[in-house]
Amino acid sequence: MAADADECDYFVREIEKNDGCTLKVKQCYLGDVGCVVWDAAIVLAKYLETKQFYEPSSRVNVWADRRVLELGAGTGAVGLMAAALGAHVTVTDLEDLQTLLRMNIQENQALIDSGSITAKVLKWGEDVSDFLPPPRYILMADCIYYEQSIVPLVESLKLLSGPETCIICCYEQRTEGINPKVERQFFELLQQNFICEEIPEDMQDPEFSSPDIHILHIRRNV
User: Fold this and answer.
1) Which pTM does this prediction carry?
2) Torsion (CA) 205, 188, 159, 88 in degrees, nearest 10
């Protein structure tokens, strides 16, 4: 497992920020899906830097001092980008991903100035009181894959989100096996309590986007 891996069991994925600084995110050669920086995480991380959120020349920074929660953080790549942009981030995943998350936080601490980042355990469907009041943003990259996790994931989103919360969900649309069924179940369940807005490609990072990777803004149905 990731928590027991030696240094030689890791390899690094670099994510260059628009200011030229580089996030260095360790991944595991061996482990579950959470040990890898998936393409959807890169697309979402770079989306956080687009001009609608972050434009230093115009003094626009939506992330400054915002409370942000990442679900299913895995390596923590998306949360690290948000923290590097000035947000106060909590990255969450299961217990056996905590060592990898903390390692990546430590590795990139020098890039986090006005923001902050901590790692905590959160199992979907269980108590969320440690993460309340609701954050301003919830970030999710490629969290829609296990059929048995769909109901607890949506339940956690309901418990964690308030009327002002924006959930930014990025996922790669997969056509093989059970994936289409899982995606359909997720969105059917989600739309009972939430409104989804798909973000067009021309509002995403021009280099880091793909027709089969979707970004959604999701808000509570009020």
Assistant:
1) 0.93
2) 0
